[in-house]
Amino acid sequence: MKKFTFLIFIIFNLNAFCQNNLKIEIDNPEPRVGESVLFSINIDFLKDNIQEKLGSEIELTRSTSVHGMQSDDFERVIVFNKVGLNKVGPFEFEFNGKKYVTNQIEINVQPKIVLEESLMVRIAELNGQKYIVIEQLVKNIAKTERNEFGEMTTYLGGLAPDNFEFAKLNEEIKRSIELDDLNTSSETLTPENSKYGEIGFSYSRIRYRINFSEDFKDEYILTEKDFINLPKNYKLKPIIIKK
After folding, report:
1. Is the pLDDT of residue 68 over 50?
2. Would you say the C-alpha torsion 151, 152, 157, 163 has a positive or negative sign?
3. 3-state SS string over 156-216?
4. From what superkingdom does this record's organism come (predicted)?
């Protein structure tokens, strides 16, 4: 019986050894329903294999540039349609007689955003890494401007009110929590089936990656004092950040 178990162990590990592991990544730790998310798998092995077949006299360069960006990954935009835990992977495929297997990631998908003036602060997590996510919506106003040639320009969906600033973390918080990989995005959102030119909302998402240093205490409570540009009369429910 022991010999049989040992044989199974050897076969299992030999199979794992023969596999080539690839990593799945997404660019948003906790996306919302209907939101576009960049999904990627590193495929350097493909480049290495092609280079080997080309020989030393031909050099394989990086992938072609798209809008000034280059990538050696397999990339696609994916959209989640279900709230809650979604699993992506693992994927298995073969290339040139070799078997490749990806990891599996679990993504906690948030409900579709409601188009109304609001400020939402939450802690997101992906693969053990935690983030502070700040989302804000403000109602746009109609905006028409005249350029230097006297031509009128109307902004479809409108623009945020003049001198408006989205909420964000202040610099003082960095004395208590180490933050990096600041990621910001903004766009104009309009209701589904809206009429052409209908005024929409300016939407901002700011994401901070949290790094827990050795000096970090058991927890940090995120309160209004950690922010700037908060809306008037806004009350933030304290958010506890733990390792």
Report:
1. no
2. positive
3. CCCECCCCCCCCEECHHHHHCCEEEEEEEEEEEECCCCCCCCCCCEEEEEEEEEEECCCCC
4. Bacteria
* Higher local confidence (pLDDT), 138 or 93: 138
DSSP 124: E
Tell me how far the alpha carbon of residue 92 is from its chain's centroid.
Answer: 24
Q: Which residues does 143 contact at the CB level (< 8 Å), separation at least 6?
A: 154, 155, 158, 159
How far, CA to CA in Å, does 86 sit from each of 75, 79, 108, 153? Answer: 19, 11, 6, 43
3-class state of residue 242 by DSSP: strand
Confidence band of 65 (pLDDT split at 50, 70, 90):
very low
Confidence of residue 243 (pLDDT cuts 50, 70, 90): confident
**Closest to 142 (Cα-Cα) out of 158, 125, 124, 128:** 158
Q: What radius of gyration do the chain's Cα atoms show?
A: 24
Q: What are the angstrom distances between the C-alpha of 186 and each of 159, 179, 192?
A: 12, 20, 18
52 vs 98: CA distance, rounded Å: 15
Contact between 127 and 111 under an 8 Å Cβ cutoff? The reply is no
**Do the strands 98-102 and 19-22 form a parallel or antiparallel pair, or are they unpaired?**
parallel
What distance in Å separates the CA atoms of residue 165 and residue 186, rounded to the nearest whole number?
A: 12
* Dihedral sign, Cα of residue 184, residue 190, residue 193, residue 198: negative
